[in-house]
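About this split. The held-out portion is used to measure sequence recovery: a designer receives only the structure tokens and must propose an amino acid at every position. Recovery is the fraction of positions where the proposal matches the reference. Here is one held-out target exactly as it appears in the evaluation file.
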């Protein structure tokens, strides 16, 4: 850090993930003097796009399905190089062993192919129902969650709008929504669908990134969360942005810097300075201190309070709540450098660029979850696969291909340890891939498998957790990150939270960063 950046700032943002960048950009745009400090040499956390083998690139978070349109608009991100409009939405393919794949086209299955006419009708109904119901949750995402018993006019308006949206569903569907809302996804799918491939895909989507199986109570919430996201104005849509997820990070950085924020990388914060119960700045690992009017922590809440603030500055009740946030990641990430494009028999060329899901049935997903409860992984892991070099040739050398797979149910703490377990998990994943893309094993030039322990170390994400804390009913809305402190404020005056551990949770949405910036602008506390 140069001496010029040692001056007093209005705001210091800790962490240059996409939420920290979004928050910094909005505050700078509001005329604040903002300094953002990122520990790593690169911005973006798992949203970075990195070379994992000479000539081969991949983004750890590889799909965009919930980047908030208001943020895109407020920060004019398309002017800063983000290309979202005009990009085709990717289909989701439920891969089948016999090559009879089922494909959800457009924005989360506007059309379904590969299923019977009766199943297509049932899906049309279920899709419309899920989207309507997810829409009720939507207004709650882009604002502070209403506190129970609050008389705040904003909270009352949000609750009123939700009540109205519920009423608009009509009596019968309102009753049904209240019945299914906290149900497990498996039971709902059994009520309405019959095709195991379709049910497997939906069950996978409901639990992706969390420590739940399709039969775990409340697992349907994950599907509502997924469908409350939108891209290009289409709920449930997904795409790989041109240039990979790095293009989102680059656009946010440009927006922040052009609004006047200073963005520094290679600048780990080691302490948040607290004087008389108020945050007054930060200390960097190299000993330098930066004074600030307020501090926004866009990193994990546990790291914020235990590593940077320190438990002695907090009351014991609050410390206990933070300690109890569940955040053991369950996701591994595979990057393959391939000599050519793998052949998935039965898959049409136009669907090769889609999201390919190996989750043949809800039972299969549930069986894959079982070992994870006991510190092991399934011999038949479930996963979503993307071939990013098909749409963006810069991701692999000519004639070659990059495969990027999110593999669900790799426990953060593996009983046998990840040094022993990593090659075994890689073997299990490759065996699954071989079933759907015979010969793929012979094309592998290099394989990079990131376990949750690797993700934790590489991205400074405790537990390697996708959402910086489980996104389950007891850790959502006014209970996120902990009850009593869901509105981006903290017990330390002048210290705010802005990362995925805050409402509404993780995924590349930018919403925690956007909501936190608004809270700072309100000037409360
Ligand atoms: C394997 C995997 C796959 C995923 N796939 C997808 C996907 O396809 N689509 C999707 O939408 N989401 C995906 N996610 C989730 C998504 O990546 C996260 O929810 C998101 O990155 C959270 O953003 P954030 O800005 O809140 O935090 P982070 O992205 O974690 O950023 C926090 C930043 O703070 C920095 N930092 C930490 N400590 C300090 C410190 N002391 N000082 C300074 N800087 C610090 C870190 O280096 C990091 O850059 C995936 C996550 C994982 C792990």
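Reference sequence for scoring:
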């Amino acid at each position: 850090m140069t001496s010029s950046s040692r001056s007093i700032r209005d705001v210091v943002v800790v962490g240059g993930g996409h939420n920290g960048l979004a928050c910094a950009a909005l505050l700078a745009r509001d005329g604040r003097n903002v300094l953002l400090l990122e520990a790593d040499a690169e911005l973006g956390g798992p949203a970075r796009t990195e070379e994992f083998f000479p000539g081969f690139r991949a983004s750890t978070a590889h799909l965009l399905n919930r980047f908030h349109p208001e943020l895109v608009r407020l920060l004019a991100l398309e002017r800063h190089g983000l290309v979202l409009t005009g990009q085709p939405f990717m289909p989701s393919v439920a891969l089948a062993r016999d090559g009879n794949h089922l494909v959800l086209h457009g924005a989360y299955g506007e059309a379904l192919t590969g299923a019977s006419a009766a199943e297509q009708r049932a899906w049309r109904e279920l899709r419309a129902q899920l989207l309507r119901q997810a829409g009720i949750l939507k207004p709650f995402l882009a604002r502070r969650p209403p506190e129970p018993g609050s008389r705040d006019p904003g909270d009352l308006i949000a609750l009123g709008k939700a009540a109205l949206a519920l009423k608009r569903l009509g009596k019968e569907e309102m009753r049904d929504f209240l019945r299914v809302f906290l149900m497990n996804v498996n039971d709902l799918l059994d009520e309405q669908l019959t095709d195991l491939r379709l049910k497997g895909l939906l069950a996978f989507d409901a639990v992706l990134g969390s420590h739940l199986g399709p039969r775990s109570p409340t697992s349907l919430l994950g599907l509502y969360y997924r469908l409350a996201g939108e891209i290009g104005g289409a709920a449930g849509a997904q795409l790989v942005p041109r240039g990979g997820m790095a293009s989102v990070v680059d656009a946010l950085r440009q927006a922040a810097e052009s609004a006047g924020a200073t963005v520094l990388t290679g600048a780990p914060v080691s302490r948040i300075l607290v004087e008389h119960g108020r945050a007054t700045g930060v200390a960097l690992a190299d000993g330098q201190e930066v004074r600030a009017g307020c501090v926004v922590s866009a990193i994990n809440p546990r790291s914020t309070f235990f590593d940077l603030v320190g438990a002695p500055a907090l009351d014991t009740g609050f410390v206990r709540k933070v300690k109890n946030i569940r955040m053991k990641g369950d996701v591994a990430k595979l990057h393959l450098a391939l000599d050519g494009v793998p052949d998935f028999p039965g898959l049409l060329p136009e669907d090769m660029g889609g999201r390919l899901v190996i989750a043949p049935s809800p039972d299969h997903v549930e069986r894959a979850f079982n070992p994870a409860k006991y510190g092991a992984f399934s011999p038949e892991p479930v996963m979503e696969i993307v071939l990013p070099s098909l749409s963006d040739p810069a991701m692999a050398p000519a004639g070659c291909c990059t495969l990027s797979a999110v593999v669900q149910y790799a426990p953060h703490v593996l009983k046998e340890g990840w040094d022993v377990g990593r090659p075994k998990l890689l073997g299990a994943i490759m065996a699954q891939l071989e079933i759907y893309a015979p010969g793929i094993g012979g094309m592998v030039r290099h394989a990079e498998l990131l376990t949750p322990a690797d993700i934790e170390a590489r991205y400074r994400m405790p537990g390697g957790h996708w959402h910086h804390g489980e996104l389950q009913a007891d850790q959502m809305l006014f209970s996120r990150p902990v009850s009593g402190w869901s509105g981006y404020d903290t017990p330390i005056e002048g210290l705010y939270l802005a990362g995925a551990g805050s409402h509404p949770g993780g995924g590349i949405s930018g919403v925690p960063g956007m909501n936190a910036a608004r809270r700072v602008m309100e000037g409360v506390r």
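Annotator remark: Residues 103 and 113 are 5 Å apart (CA to CA).
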